[in-house]
Queue: 3 jobs
Job 1
Amino acid sequence: MTEATLNMAAAAPQTHKPAAGGREEFAHDITGTVGKPFLDGKDTKFFSRGVNVFYTGNKQAIFDVNVDIGRNEVIAMIGPSGCGKSTFLRCLNRMNDTIAGCRVTGDIRLDGEDIHGKEQDPVLLRARVGMVFQKPNPFPKSIYDNVAYGPRLHGLAANRAELDEIVESSLTKAGLFKEVKDRLQTPGTGLSGGQQQRLCIARTIAVSPEVILMDEPTSALDPIATATIEELIDELRQSFTICIVTHSMQQAARISQRTAYFHMGKLVEVNNTKTVFTNPQHQLTENYITGRFG
Amino acid sequence: MNTLGILLTLSVLAAFSYYIGRKRSLALATPAKRGGNNLHSLPGYYGYLVAIWCGIPALIILLLWSVLSDSIITQMTLAHLPTELQNQSGDQVSLISNQIRNLVANGIETATDPAMKVAAEEYSRLQGISNMAKTVVVLVLAIIGFAIGMRFIKPTTRARNQVEHVIQYVMILCAAVAILTTVGIITSVLFESIRFFGQVPATDFLFGTHWSPQTAIRADQVGGSGSFGAIPLFVGTLLISAIALLIAVPLGLMSAIYLSEYASPFVRAYVKPALEILAGIPTVVYGFFAALTVAPFIRDVGAMIGLNVASESALAAGVVMGVMIIPFMSSLSDDVINAVPQAMRDGSYGMGATKSETIKQVVLPAALPGIVGAFLLAASRAIGETMIVVMAAGLSANLTVNPLEAVTTVTVQIVTLLTGDQEFDSAKTLAAFALGLALFVVTLILNILALQIVRKYREQYE
């Protein structure tokens, strides 16, 4: 990586001379991830090396992704449509297992524990690594039952009072409790889009996961609801590790500490968010964040 | 020319006027100037407009003439009859007019009564005039229509809007046919039922517990006085439907869950049509399967464990009927389960739920309204089913809830009441209409409930 970075830096001024390792040539050849994809062992929550995903017919969706995700950080994954960012996100809680014909190879560890290990149950993994989806998808149940769904499944509450407490604290953390406390028994589908998405976040928090994966959580919401969710994400960082896939570069810049740029199924660049947006090291990253494509 | 000939000529004329109308409008259209022409509509619409003018008024007159001419001719013939034949009761007059028509159809020479012969000749003559006049009037009308239609071919005519307007009326007419048929059936059943309730009090019918509809048709016959308590029939219907649903709902629902959630696309592609074949078997085939195979089998099994099972039992009929409605249940449930958005399942998996927890706690509750709709449709099918019960459950109206005994249902009794010699003013025959009305009301309520529930379900996800 370091070598590539140095090459990049050295080649940067010579834009008109496409030499070996120069910009034009480099743009079409993603050999490895530039930036700082790796962290110290003690800060690492998710460790992934050589991750490939294949769909039906041996169509490869992502190629050799190597990256570490830090504890209590918000990492944003950006890139053009179809670049594999969502697919990679879904590897982290083995949601790709539910897609027929999808195959994941490589080494992914959560706190040093292989998530593809024989003794690893994907169902329990998903309780540790929660997920919020692009479109708010509350269950057709009451608000209360939506939040209580996970705790009930995993037997987290011994009695009704404990369950009430979990529901209340989850809704409070998701910033929704004040708005819905008088109508907990009304259907969750009756809330507005932004409220529904916060309900889904509350639902995810209720099982006390360690990591929350968010797949474009605000793309179906208006700007005000988006702002509320973004503030929420910033607060949630205190207690959770958050990986967020987003189409909006402004959003990535506002809420994340680190940013990963994906292109054509490859992880091009990972770095501190500020560095990625002010001083991208890879030509593709620069093209994307300056709006030349994507 | 007979009516069929006129119809054929009319269609040829209409096709011809379409062709001419289109051609004329093309000739009128100025060559495209800067990408447009001066016609309001596409040339085809002018063609259709002319064809409509040519065909529709003529067709309406043809229909009216065909429907009304017969009674008018009959009236005119009867007016020429000798007075002693005219001054008779209504039944006698209609008998005479039927005789005249028969004479015309079979040859007037066969007539024995000279007055009738004269009348038949008169009828035949009038019919000839009427047919001739019909042909002339319809064809002239078609040609006049064509001429009027051609006058409308102008660039300013909004031909497309007018044609679409006519098509809209045609569609309303099609919808009206179905609705009017329903109304007709209901009124005919309703009036006969009212006649029945004139002879048998409605309370006796609805709350009586003894059903024995055999009444003496002729005075010299020895027969029961007839009692029309329909409770045994309703209980029998409910019993057999309940057994059928008890079989069909779990089997259908389970297979639907398997097909939509667990089966691979390959398995699904073959199993689903195979299941639906069950719905294609004629019910009479199910009937003899029930009577010849299932009923003896149940009786033998009963004998083995020391139960006395009638050779025609509610159980046999119910089980076979249950098998018959499995595809209703499975196919409709499969559709509604598939309609549950994948996002629901993802949400549940994302919380660490297993597949079975997801199905039980998210997918099925979300699909429940649709499943209830499927259940109600299957139930109304079970209640209306006749053939299996006729063959496998017997005709004896026992008031029992024991599935091992022979029972009978509403539909079976309607069949037995209306087969054989009938007299349409006896309570026995009219009882069939009252039963039909009761059945209709029940299935109507079930269908309305089912549709309401299905509609509510659709609102939730669209």
Job 2
Amino acid sequence: MKQRLQAFDIINIVVLLIVSVACLYPFVYMLAVSLSDKIAIAKGEVWLWPVNFNLDNYRYVFEDGRVMKGYRNTILYVVLGTSTSLILTALGAYALSKKTMVFQKQIMLMIVFTMFFGGGMIPTFLVVKSLGLVNTIWAMVLPGAIGTWNLLIMRTFFSGLPSELEESGKIDGLSEIGIFFRIVLPLSKPVLATIGLYYAVGIWNNFMGPLLYLRSQSLFPLQVFLRNIVLSGELMNGEASASSDLQIVGDALKFATILVSTLPILCVYPFIQKYFVKGALIGSVKG
Amino acid sequence: MPSSRNTLARRIARDKYLLLLVLPCVLYYIVFKYVPIFGIVIAFKNYSLFKGVWASDWVGLRYFKMFIEGPDFWPIIRNTFLLGLYRLVFGFPAPIILALLLNEVRQAFFKRFVQTVSYLPHFISNVVVAGIAVMFLSPTTGLVNQIIGALGFDRITFMVEPSWFRTIYISTDIWQHIGWGTIIYLAALTAIDPVLYEAARIDGASRWRQLIHITLPGIVPAIMIILLLDIGKILEVGFEKVYLLATPVTYSTADIISTYVYRVGLSHGNYSLATAVDLFTGIISFLFVITANTISKKLSEHSIW
């Protein structure tokens, strides 16, 4: 009996190790290739650890203006978009958490309905266009400003706050707006962090938005440049100067580009993971 | 009636600050969600840029007919449906299996490590995922083909073979979401009463039998709800990854509703036809959600509303 239990555990651990390796290995491989010498890559010697370590590929990536420009734009959109989204979502979610509010049911119905049916790509595009937002920063901020799921998560959180706190605010003569800013918001840092991170990652990774709404290069976020370099094969500066093994150099450069643009998420992810999970759990309990 | 109008006015006056707080949110939904819903009328009109949405001429169902009778109709519907179906068949059980395996791990540190690592791909952008797939599958320098070559087989040109598209899409999808999908099941697993396991152990049940008779039934409600939501979403195949992975040579399997709508509408400028296609499939998709829910209500007590 004991023997069988151990076999069960060992198989389980092996399977889970394979899953972990499958999730991590692509990043390890890309890191190794992008840090290696091109001759070693061509010989197929690189698969786990950099061979003849050098930073040339990263130098090319940073010398090529596009990645840096994309970075600047993406950071701008993330900061502006996340703050706009958080403010709109928190204000709406707080008011809607008050079940006695007039029109509360009607507004909730109106919001939930959009989860099942929407205008679709073209009518939305026409609205964004007629508002004059196409090819402006605001096209990256406003059309997706409120995520209905995020709004519902926040509303669940606000309805769970003890009502005594707000009563005490009322006794002190605060209006609902005062209660919200002075009492509720300071107590809501965890949910604000969680939802803020969801919005930030969503904006950082958004590709369809800029594809639909942006035209000029100077506004492109990182993901669009990344697509152009990695998938559409636009050349990098470094490639033009490289002579023989064009494709090898190209691959290593592309890996470096991918890693540079994913780095912020890879670096902060282990520390903020628990916030993401918390959000997923609040959402699922509600859903 | 005047009394009820009075109370309504009084309630509005009482909640004026709350209404002020919710106002920007309501405006957002009206402008970016409901105005586009009314904009769907262009599916029934010959939309002209100069005349605008309202002044364009009515053409009735001309664009619906054009789409349904056109050569693209069946391929597009079939591709979207099959991609959604395969995602359901392979992508839905994957997180359940992983959650059950994680649940059997006794070493807390190892469990946390696997969880952290497997959630990671969920936060990687579709551009990066498509980029990694294309580079790893490259016939000349890609890692996968290097291995295939080293084993003595012929290299495969994955990205230009229509027959490989669905496999690539589904496997990258599982890679992205398997870990994240376990969260809800792991939460459901913690709710199972430990006394049940103790009783089973006293009765001499092996761990495999405990898994089948206690653990699995314990998460059936969660499984049912997620299955229901996933069936409803079968036609909602995301635009980004398909658009990024597809090339004109693979359109015979890779062209789906959303990429078709994008191409017809924004690249070719036929807004009315694109909107008609979108509306047609939007209605089918809506019916899917309702049917899935009704069936599930009949079969069990699980439903999403």
Job 3
Amino acid sequence: MASPSNWTKLQDIFHQALAIPPDSRSTFLAEACNGDDALRQQLEGLLQSAGSGDSDFYQTAVGQAAESVFAKDQAVPGDRLGPYQLIRPLGQGGMGSVFLAARADGAFEKEVAIKLVRAGFDSPAARERFRTERQILAALDHPNIARLLDGGEGSRGEPYVVMEYIEGVPLDVYCKQNTLGVAERVDLFRRICSAVSYAHRRLVVHRDIKPANILIGADGVPKLVDFGIAKLLDTADPAASLTRAGERAMTLDYASPEQILGQPITTASDIYSLGVVLYELLTGKPPYRLHGARPSEVERTICVDDPVRPSTSVARAGAEVPDANRLARRLRGDLDNIILKAMRKEPDRRYASVDELAEDLRRHREGYPVLAQPDTWQYRAGKFLSRNRAAVGIGVAVAASLAFAFVAVIRERNTAQAERAKAEQVSKFLVESFRVVDPSESRGRTLTAREVLQQGAERVDRELQSQPGMRATILRTISEVYASIGLYPDSQNLVERAIQARAAAGESESPEAVEDEIQLGRILLTRGNAKNSIAQYKKALAKPDAKAPERRSRLLYHMGMANADAGAWEESKSAYEQSLALRRQLGDQALVAQTLFGMADLQFRRSDYTGTLNLGTQAYEIRRQLFQGNHPAVAESLQQMAMAQDALGKLEEGLRLGQEALKMRRAIFGENHAVVAMNLNDMASFYLHAKRFQESIDAHLQSIAIYKKVFGEKHPLIATALDNLGATYYEMRETKLEEQVKSQAMEMRRELFGEGSMEHTASLSSWAVMLFSRSRFNEALSYATRTLELRRKFHGPDAHTVGVAAINLASTYERMGRSADAIPFLQEALGIFRKRLGDKHPTTARTMALLGTCYSNLGNRTKAEEWYRQSITSYGNETPSFSWTSFVGLGELLLAKGDLAAAEPLLEKAHEIAKKNPKQVGFGRGLADSALGRLKLRKGQKQEGLALILAARPDLERAKGAPRCATELALNRKAAP
Amino acid sequence: MEPDSSSSDPTGTVTKLIRASSLGDSDARERLIAEIYADLHRIAARMMSRERAGHTLQATALVNEVLLKFLIKDDPFAAENKKQLMSIAAISMRHMLVDHARAKGRAKRGGPAEQIPIQTELDGVAPSSEKLLLINDALRRLEQKGERHARVAELRIFGGFTTEEIAEVLNVATRTVERDWLFARAWLQNELK
């Protein structure tokens, strides 16, 4: 070792030697060390070391050591997390460590990606948030989204999430590797949009969209990874978001201004990031140069500076980009505009939805003008509304639904009325009168559709005092708009005012007066008052002005609908047929198709689905040829066919047609429109029938979300949708959820329509039915009684609805073993049905059958036999599934009397019905089979008889709470002990 | 990048400690080291957990975060404090790593095995801690020879500071730091052979 003086010497010689070329050093060293071999040796070593070695040696060594400090807390390959074993780090994620893993228990072969958050939960609430968030993400099921599969906490309490492992190449790399052209890149991008849109509809925001999070598999299918994971991890480790500053530099390129500024992140933030991704995808460069910039610069660039137009960016790059000029031309205009609209600094100036962005790309791709206005009426309505939106602050969804309502109403008027010039004048006035709606009325808040229309109507009242005829026509038109957006009471109110105004103008006998009456009839029907609606139409038909063939055919068409609604099938058919004949004479194919559509609807109501399909297809073919492309009428027909196919059990076909209709309606009306919601509601039922429960629930939730946007929190259609959602929960055996949504629906109807209204009591009634089906008879009884009382009071003593309530109440009594209590209600129901539906009607027949059952339970065989026989006569040739009860009932009675020959065909018939409809018939199958078995035994067909008896027994045992089953079970056991 | 108010040192404890320590209060110096040590630990843990998987933890980044945390913009003594802090941060880093590497070595020799290692070749942790202890030992020997060389090396290796920063901390010319580092590096390299 060198002494202190040597230390200085050592350094001096070292530095001097370093300045000398290596070749000449040894001479220099020999001289400088002056025979001190130890010194020379040491210097030689030092000089050698100085020239060699890894310059990052210490950095690496210290870095690794620092890492190892925490490695003891850190998951490493081989560790187990729940059922998963970590295989190797992937390190591709934005945050948290990511591992490739596999199920350690071998339950699944598939490899997964696991993300770990190091920090544990700081509170039970955080744990709960993490869990909830995880569930939301786990529900994302889309072919272009990597699924979140599982999650939990490791042994040290560290939260983790398990995701589908995607083997793929990041989007940007993929596009370069495959030298994709602009069109292919845009197509790929649109697929990504569909995934993001799907998640947005479920209110999930990705928050970290960037090429690295979009992986393209070998099959070319893009998959978004890490959907919503940023937020999920933040819920687990809120402190982490505080350190974002340190990390931000990593993904700033795609971060929106609101993300930079720490403002709320919404779907609009994803739209921004998508814009940046598209920018980079098409130009090969990010819109901003952020690397190496100071944070304050970065913030300013993202939040203030306008990005260079994509085409300009390409043109500037010049030689760097092959074929730069052509590419720049390709981007100039539409694509520039689309990208920059997505990237606007203010979230509300971007595209309102990812769908809108994708739609604009589609338009561009297919050569349509971007954001083009397809027709003048739509254009005018849209323009008028956009102006008014600014002035009075109508919400976007409301504006959209109003715009389409105007278009629909005006379009119908155009096609349906001969006096086009006049119609045009009315519409123009209408549009004008809304344009000047007083902005001060809104006082800065968002007006509802209803308020907008109300203001318009008030203005009409004020300004058209001197022209009562015109005023009436415009009020009626507003009434139509109200109706088309589902505000029925307002609609009725306005058309009634129109009729008054018409009378005041002395125009009660005029074509316009007939139009008023048609509108009143329509709204009455919509509100469930078919009887008054029919009366209204009859009155209108009697007027001389109703003779004009087009108007008459239209009246008859509406007449057909009203009668169908009232269950007057023959009348309905006849009205439709007259309408069809007139319309064929007129030669107006659109109107012919409309009537055919109505006739198909009638067949649907009569459960003749093949007939529905025949007529519906005719209507569809005409409409398809007539309108071509996307058209509301074509979509309507598609949906009708879908419903028929679904009812025929062709579920796949139903779903396919329904999807087609939905797609078309979305293209026409946009996402937020009641028609789209209704279509979704139907789709939900189709999914339910196909037992695709999750999709059914998703469709319901989407549908409800749209309704809420369009109508506000409470609306009849929302109540209906909630009921339907309840039906799905019922099938899933989610009793609690079912009751929850159904009671919401009931309460909503009570508030909307009032206590005792048609709608409120319908809810009460279905609640009673639900309780009944759960064998909660006492509760069912109270609801059924309440329904009946309210309906008697509000609907009149002989309303159809009273009959239905009475039969429900009677069924409950019968099921509880209180047949004597049931009989008076059945008599009441029978009176009503006989009067309204006639003697020969399945509902009448059903009431008679229940009377038979009650008398049978009470031991009055004569009366029972009598009612069963009447019931069977009343069914006639129609034997719906519920008709089994008459056949079994009468068959049993005849069997008891020993009239085997008469009993056998009846019981065989019941057996057949039950076999065909096992689900609808329920315990009836046990009853039918057991009675048939006993009959066979009596006839000496021992084997066959015993087989039937024993097969029926479990059914009967299950349902022995029902009096009929208890009786039959006793006989069954006696027959084969 | 500016430290946000939530993570700076609002009470000024560290500033006071720095001042006391620069006046020769060895107790204050110890407390300061302890304070920074804890913070380094926390920051390193957090950095490990977030997007660092597969990367080597940057000592520079760690130490810089600590500095950020304690540097208060309006502090009149900011410049002087910063020098002190840089020095202390590098020392704390060294302590932390050495402590841990020693603990690791002990555990490896004596501690009970908690788990049967599944993939022993992945246990690349031990060599790095041994390497670190060797560096530390060499650095201690260098301290015996030339204290300034050792300080330069320490600031460089454990603080990740640049030549200019080190020159500022040590109050010497950058040229001196360059020369010292050149020599110290060769010397350490030679020791570690």
